[in-house]
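Worked example 4.2. Below are the chains of a multi-component assembly; read each line carefully before continuing.
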Amino acid sequence: MSAVLLEQEKLSVVNVGVDMFAQSVREAGGSVLQLDWQPPGNGDAELAWLLAQLVGDANDPDCAGSRVDRANQLAVERIVSSQPVLTDVALHARDVWPDMGRRLLHAGAPVAWRDMCGPMQGAMIGATLYEGWADSAAAAEVMLARGDIGFAPNHDYDAVGPMAGIISPSMPLFVVRNQAHGNSAYTNMSEGIGRVLRFGANGPDVIERLRWIETVLAPTLKHAVHEVGGIDLKAIQAQALLMGDEVHSRNAAATLHFLAAIAAPLAASVLPRDPVRETLAFIAGNSQFFLNLSMVASKATMVAAHGIEDCSVVTAIARNGGTTAIRVSGLGRRWFEAPSGNPRGLYFPGFKASDGNPDLGDSAICETAGLGGFSLAASPALVQLVGGTVAEAIGYSRELQQVAVARNPALSLPNLDFIGAPCGIDIRKVVDTGIQPLLTTGIAHKEAGVGQIGAGIVRTPLPCYTAALRALATQLGVD
Amino acid sequence: MSAVLLEQEKLSVVNVGVDMFAQSVREAGGSVLQLDWQPPGNGDAELAWLLAQLVGDANDPDCAGSRVDRANQLAVERIVSSQPVLTDVALHARDVWPDMGRRLLHAGAPVAWRDMCGPMQGAMIGATLYEGWADSAAAAEVMLARGDIGFAPNHDYDAVGPMAGIISPSMPLFVVRNQAHGNSAYTNMSEGIGRVLRFGANGPDVIERLRWIETVLAPTLKHAVHEVGGIDLKAIQAQALLMGDEVHSRNAAATLHFLAAIAAPLAASVLPRDPVRETLAFIAGNSQFFLNLSMVASKATMVAAHGIEDCSVVTAIARNGGTTAIRVSGLGRRWFEAPSGNPRGLYFPGFKASDGNPDLGDSAICETAGLGGFSLAASPALVQLVGGTVAEAIGYSRELQQVAVARNPALSLPNLDFIGAPCGIDIRKVVDTGIQPLLTTGIAHKEAGVGQIGAGIVRTPLPCYTAALRALATQLGVD
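Applying the procedure described above to all two chains together yields the following structure tokens:
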């Protein structure tokens, strides 16, 4: 679509959509303002028709779109009013889920052993060794391939885990209660950086650290959490957004706030000094320690927004290393999946894009709650990683607002003059605009155990949203 | 000065300087672009002539201006290469300065008892009681008025203190060593907020807290500092600039970083648990705790840049509650003073501008090192306090760069796409442009002991800089 301004001597064209037309004008010496635009549903007439019927109509409160609008409003109210508080540390996951049995939880949508990416297979082997179910990596692999050990997505347990995201029965869990809505969510604990299970490493050093987390870190933090009567994670997330974190790939300020909350009570506690010192030093030396807590706070928030009839808000985005999958509030436990993209990022010295695993982990739950990519305006340092400017960081938050239902006044973005972060991804808006929700992310090596090789940003695949939209339309009787 | 663009039908004028001309064009229906401009030296012909002779000339390396340029380059190199490290806590100021005697140090340039503002008199009375030199406020006042107790500016001892800035012989000091240049600087410790000595309060609660600082906080921090082998304050300042602090009026991130540096070592120490808990809780609950440390790090930095022959860089800005005074690197210990302005700020409920004391304290040392007002781009939250936007915060840092010699690559400002903070205020540039260096500041009630009643920003008075410029010209044989 082109509009030619004829009043002036030189050809001036505003071209909307397909770039081809603009190019020919440019070649003829004319000036062109190219507007990015694509038709609703990306040119798919059927999708465009469904979309049109899913738009709310103020004069018809009973139409499908108006019902969706009302449901989304309720979802946003639940997100905004959520109060995720770290209320406990469970010393073992099996204490929280007595029916867990010999099962390993993992990031993303369900995936068979043979389809798991390298880092997830490596992490599964490590967890099997840590549990003592096998005494060698080879034996563990045989058991896992044979089906001796069950798998399930973290999300099916209201849990989340970064990267491979493995939670095994002996691992301790952070327990977060959404005080406003009464639901809970769970996550494992950060292992720090370097050779770690979540990137697929499974050597003796990795298992030893997991044991330290189970026997030293978790009991110490459990004591601290009880001592202070719970830690308000949303307040920390809100503060961190004022301090350069987007609270997904950067958690430097949030981690320090968490440390400040537990330092004095721990120092005064009856616990022996060594575990207290080790715990405080571990957190002080790991600026991403709060990531798991930001994830679980986001999960506790989004669980409260899940299960609202007719609601088109995304309540989970999760990547198993092969696919990116989303859940939608009104569409139950069903995952809408598509192959994951590879992040655009900065690679550590010695690594390149082709070494990278497709996007991995449950951490995108942060974006569903308005953090991470949606709050990039708060964290220009991250955009600088991929060669971007402050203006680009702000641009991402502005762009992503277009696919959000509302703004979250509790999550204020300084660089947008303190307006709220985008709140509630509406699949209708994603399909309508073609704007693919953006995640901030770490990049895993595709081979098990190599670890993190970079950090960057990635767009979630559009087919997740179009498939979900079709399902919602069907459910609403729209065709 | 006006330039009229005649090619178009309607009168279009670019007016430079005096607004009167612009107004008449506007009244005649023309359009005007008004450029703020004022002649060098603000129209003072003698000053303009001095300025002209103090400009460097690449073809004349021996001219006065070229000598100043070289001296300033050296000053900037010393600022940029400085490494202020907290190496010790002195349990009593008299241990550091055995010749201190019965003397009280204070903020700003020298000032007689009768000329001291309310908060400073109140703080002097409090310090006299704390030292046990008098047993009532009335008795203390008599002694102070009679001259029984000596006064001296902190800066004469390479020390700094916020607000009234009183340092008495029994107070503990932070000892900071500039590892790159071998000089040291000193400051007192933050008392937190509320009724505090630095705002002129001197009741029993205030004295008791000072005692706690002397007997609990200081020995505990001394232990921590020795345990970790010194704390790199510049690294903390640099990190804090990436986290929403300008490290003068906002120190939230810097305080958390300091806490993280001492928490684990203190938790593991042989010290009893109570002082450790009290110390960590005091710092965790006081987001401005790092202010004194940012000030002393800045002082240790600027001492290294002081005393360079021919140098026109400002090495101290200090306010005694009546005057704002500056020192210049090439002009020795002389102060150039002018009456302080009142801050433009946000007042706490129940207070108004007329309750405020003129600008007070040594904390403007931060600005001489490129922090505070010069780094406002890092801290939009502070500009929001005075009704400003992010764009204004960035604008201040850009504007103030015009009076700086260079940029400090060690102090990176995210919102300026990570370029360095302004470095080295050049009095020539201040007088030439008329841009008055801007400070972020707390606002004290003018009556002793009421405390802080607001926060805001204030411009330092131009006459400080013009007087210094005249002195420099004389010293360089320019007239």
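Take a moment to check your reading of the output against the notes. Residues 134 and 140 of chain B are 5 Å apart (CA to CA). The two ends of chain B are 28 Å apart (CA to CA).
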